[in-house]
Every structure is written in C-alpha cells, then in structure tokens.
Amino acid sequence: MELLRVDTIEAAREKLVNAMQEKKPNIVRLDLLKSLGHILAQDVIAQEPVPSFRRSTVDGYAVVSGNTAGASESLPVLLEMVEEVSMGHPSCCPVKTGTCGYVPTGGMIPEGADAMVMEEYCEIFDENHLAVYCPVAHGKDVVSQGEDIREGELVIKKGTRIRPQEIGVMASLGIMDVMVYEPWTITIFSTGDELVHPSHQPAPGEIRDINSYALSAQAETYGLKIQEVMVCKDDQETLKGKVSQLMKISDLVIISGGSSKGKKDATSQIIDEVTDGHTLIHGLALKPGKPSIFGYDQSTATLVTGLPGHPVAAMLVFDLLIIWLYKYMTSQKEGHSLFARMTTNLAGSPGRTTCQLVRLIKKEQEYYAEPVHGKSGLITSLTRADGYLMIGQNQEGLNKDELVEVFYV
C-alpha cells in the first residue's frame, strides 16, 4: 500500500472498533481492595440507604425544633432529659414536646426529634433538665436516612476507574467484591540502530531510548498491563520473530519507529506479514503522526501498531487511538477537557487534522491557550504543555481569541 492512502482520525477509530469487537476486555470478579485502579464493568446500584438511620453531625441534644423557639441566653428553654444515646446502639426513648436526648456525633437520633442543639449552646440545669440557650431550625445538624445514598440509586457508573473514593462508597454499601474489566496486555518495541539504553552515554550518532519508557508509562497510567518492553535494532527478521512470539501473549503490540518510508523502515511489511495481510490503517491524516500503521491478527486476536519514532508524535497517536480504543471498549468517559481562548492566530495543515500542543494560562476567570511550538522529535514540548487542541483538516486555522476545546495530556 502507499503511505499516501491515509485515514482520518474518525475513520481510523471506526476501523479499530470494528476489528476489535471480538477482543473486548474480559470481565472478572475482584476483591474490593484489589479492585483499586481497575475499570468498573457494571453499574453499582444501592441495595440499601446510606445512612440507614438518622444521624447527628454534632455532639449535642436531639430536640423538637419548635420547642427551642425564642430561646436566648437571658431566657433559656428548659427541656426534660429522657435518654443518653450510646454510639453503636439504637435510641430507645422517643423525644416528645418538652423533652430531649443526648446524642454524640454519628449517633442515632431518637424518634420524634427533628433537630440537634450543639452542646456549646446548652447547660445541664438539674439532674433531669437541660437549659437550651439557642433556637434551632427543623433539620439542623441532622443527616436523614438515605440522605447520602438512596436505596435503588445508581451510585457508580460502569466504566468508572476505581479510586479510593469509590472503594469507600462500595464499602458503605457492604459490597466486598467487584466486577471489573481485565486490562489488555501490551508489549512495546522501540526500534532503531541508533538507540541505546538511557543509562548509557551515547556515542556520536546514537541517542538514548525515550519511547519505550514514555509509552510504557503512558500505558500504565491508563490501566493497561505491561507484558514486555524491548529495544530492538533495525533487523527485519529478528524484529518480526520477536513480534510474532509476543503476539501470542499480548493483546496489543506496539512498534515505535520504522513506520515512515526510510530505507530501513520495515515496520509496514512486518505488520502486514504477522497479521496475514490484515493491515487496517496505513497512515493518518494527522500532524504529527502521519506515518502510523495498524494491523489486526485474527489468529492471536492481537492489534499490532507501528507508531512514529518521534516521541511527541508517538505519544499523541497512542493517546488519540490506542487509549481512546481502550476507553471505548471499557465504557470509560473520554478525556477531560476545557474551553480556552487562543492567545494568537494559528495556521492549520490543509488535508490533515493538526494536533497542537498548548499551555493554559488563566487570566481572571477565563483560560487562554498558548501554542507550544516544537518539532515532534523534541520531547520537552510535552513537558511544557498542559494539553492539546485539534484543528480540523478542512480548517485553515484558528484566530486569536477564538474559543477552542483543550484536551488534557
């Protein structure tokens, strides 16, 4: 195929989804604590209310709010003490007009009471009576049954990445095991005769390997499971053999470098051969990232991808297609974004979607997007950027002060 036969991002995504239908991530059951960081595979519906009883948010006295009307330091209201509620135990004496009961923070509020008066505004008058010096409104410092979570409520949506917060919510509902998506496994190859390990001092003409480290970290950030990471020389047969071997145990195989039309760039041929001719995408209408290749092998159910060697282009394509695909297959939300105004005019690339890195600047209550210029081989461009915006392939560019959507990186 010719590299000029490129796909738009939208067309490429559609091809990947269609090819990977049989490769949807498996669903597994995990212990609640072991589910941290995984993607929830089913909605969490509350089978009971939280809290399951009315609770006090302060140390104080449960009262009928109407009884405290007009209370002041000079003219307190006297109420009869009928109960002292203990933590972890139910209330046993209802509160009626003219009575009250002591309740600690988190304790169960007696039936009949509709408000709490903090200890600071009360004083023991005698053995059986309490003086209240402050009026309280209905519902003051009371958490109602089900106020946090209602029975039958959709509490956590399918596709949510489980954080400590979600662990806490599920624990409050008594959920001790969780259905989650089993992460896809990924193998990453970084190729090039010029590459040396980052710990080595490069000789003239050599460079330290960036992509295997950057892409591995990017994959782990989004929950993919690293199967293998390798740096290979530009030897077609050796690389093909290693790719074929690792396709048997990987859901995704990434080859970074060797996807353009250089003399030694054999990634296209390797992908075509290891997928038995099922190359899906051979080039993207995208800047940067045009020389990207995707193939799907049905026998091993593996997606094999050739990414550009330039780190910025490789990481952006990985985010726009591989991470997007994984999120789509696991019902996750798309990445976070916000709207900002351009600080300057910015030209597009006719016939290609332009992915432009930007830095966000906040002025008063509004954000502004400042382009971060740098060639795709310069990795520091990403460290100086907060996100990126997309200029459509049919757009000439963007104007200063134009409102644009910025996606976080």
TrEMBL record:
Belongs to the MoeA family. Its cofactor is Mg(2+). This is Molybdopterin molybdenumtransferase. It catalyses: adenylyl-molybdopterin + molybdate = Mo-molybdopterin + AMP + H(+). One of its GO terms (biological process) is Mo-molybdopterin cofactor biosynthetic process. GO terms for molecular function: metal ion binding; molybdopterin molybdotransferase activity. SUPFAM superfamilies: MoeA C-terminal domain-like, MoeA N-terminal region -like, Molybdenum cofactor biosynthesis proteins. Pathway: Cofactor biosynthesis; molybdopterin biosynthesis. NCBIfam families: Glp_gephyrin (NF045515), molyb_syn (TIGR00177). Keywords: Magnesium, Metal-binding, Molybdenum, Molybdenum cofactor biosynthesis, Transferase. Catalyzes the insertion of molybdate into adenylated molybdopterin with the concomitant release of AMP. Its EC number is 2.10.1.1. GO terms for cellular component: cytosol. Residues 187-329 form the MoaB/Mog domain. It holds the Pfam family MoeA_C.
